[in-house]
Design goal:
By secondary structure, the protein is an alpha/beta fold. Helices cover 30% and strands 26% of the residues. It has 2 domains: 155 residues, Rossmann fold (3-Layer(aba) Sandwich), CATH 3.40.50.2020; 133 residues, Rossmann fold (3-Layer(aba) Sandwich), CATH 3.40.50. The strands form 4 sheets. It has a 6-stranded parallel beta sheet, with helices on both faces. A 6-stranded parallel beta sheet has the order 10-9-13-14-15-16, sandwiched between helices. β13, α6 and β14 form a beta-alpha-beta unit.
């Protein structure tokens, strides 16, 4: 099995190759033509080999690179192509909200799977996205990775910033054996929210180490408000954690101003990628790849 790391996921791809028993690892040669088109070349002999392509699709350019990588690997004679998209862009447009809109996650799922024998993602924003794939597709969870990391830290209470993430936080809390709850959120606009503690909470934050856990941090507005609310209620230390750290504009700095630490996984390049999902992706590839 070979592992190819796209430019958006080079570090994670290399970690996955090590988890797969030091599988041969490579990165493509990339350049831009004067007209802006992308040139890509992949080295190595893939004749009758299984190849794992790892590339998050945070930007449209990342997506184009992934599609070209898939074609290059097929042209190189790969027997099977396992495509790992740790952060699957456009996953939040998983249904039509207004007439004339595309279902973006479905459109991209159909294109990515055209030249893939199996697709693996991590913590999709909505389970509906996985249902758009018609070929074998699997979702790895970052919860085991965070459990491994947080066992090494003082954690008294786990918090979901809204009810939508309650199940995620509950599962992590069960592994760690800690209490948890979800805040009640009212969204004002794309960057502003109102948060409050649920009624009859029964949990004191005074002097406690609190971890706020979410799937995606974009502008950071919800996380900042959650941290402020918990500080006002006596939390001694606050850690924020997420699977996918987009940290748009000044989100990283705003969170650092109200939290003691920030943890994100290596699904995206950022200044907080202290948790690796490589072991979990590798185990899934070994299990499901062998079953194909």
């Amino acid at each position: 099995m070979h592992v190819i790391g796209g430019s958006a996921s080079t570090d994670l791809a290399e970690r996955i190759s090590r988890e797969l028993g030091n599988a041969p690892f490579g990165v493509p040669f990339l350049k831009r033509f004067p007209d802006g088109e992308l040139y890509l070349r992949v080295g190595g002999n893939f004749q009758n080999e299984d190849v794992v392509i790892v590339q998050s699709t945070r930007t449209d350019e990342d997506l184009l690179e992934l599609l070209l990588l898939q074609d290059a690997v097929r042209e190189g004679g790969a027997r099977r192509s396992f495509v790992v998209v740790p952060y699957f862009g456009y996953a939040r447009q998983d249904r039509r909200f207004f007439p004339g809109e595309p279902i973006s996650s479905r459109a991209l799922a159909r294109h990515v799977e055209l030249d893939a024998d199996m697709v693996v993602t991590v913590d999709l924003h909505s389970p509906l996205t996985l249902g758009h794939f018609r070929k074998p597709s699997f979702e790895a969870s970052a919860i085991p990775a965070f459990a491994r990391q947080l066992r090494q830290r003082p954690v008294d209470v786990l918090v979901s910033p809204d009810k939508g993430g309650a199940d995620r936080v509950r599962r992590l809390a069960e592994i760690l054996g800690r209490p948890w709850f979800a805040l009640e959120k009212k969204r004002i606009d794309s960057e502003h929210v109102e948060l409050r503690l649920p009624d009859a909470l029964g949990v004191s934050f005074t002097g406690k180490h609190v971890t706020i856990f979410d799937d995606v941090i974009s502008t950071g507005g919800t996380i900042v408000e959650a941290a402020r609310l918990l500080r006002q209620n006596g939390a001694a230390a606050i850690t924020t954690a997420c699977t996918h750290g987009l940290f748009l504009r000044d989100a990283f700095e705003r969170i650092k101003a109200v939290a003691d630490d920030i943890y994100a996984t290596d699904t995206l390049h950022n200044g907080a990628q202290k948790v690796s999902v490589a072991p979990d992706i590798a185990r899934l590839l070994e299990k499901e790849g062998a079953a194909r």
